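debug: dumping io for the single-chain case to check the tokenizer round-trip. Nothing else runs in this session.
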Amino acid sequence: MAAIRRTFFATRQGTVKKTALNEFSNVRKGGIIAIGIDPGDTLIEVKLTRGSIVESDEVKDAGDDVVLITRDGMSIRFNESDVRSMAVRPPACAASIWKKTTRL
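debug: decoded output
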């Protein structure tokens, strides 16, 4: 079974979102809103990831690792499989380990 490639979004305030690449295959005239961004926040990066491979509830390949680093030098490293994949419409997940004033 092949992995489904994913787009991984990160904002300055630590919000992350992972979406299957095939969600962007049918773009309508009005475009696609890929991620909702809160007022005062900005998108800092979007990367294409390998995606994970799961067969019969067994993880064959966990996919790529993600590293987020703050201005103050703090960092967190996690696997992309730790972030639930969401469709284009739902809001993103906030990384709850950061203080409200932390910036990436």
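debug: round-trip ok. The radius of gyration is 14 Å.
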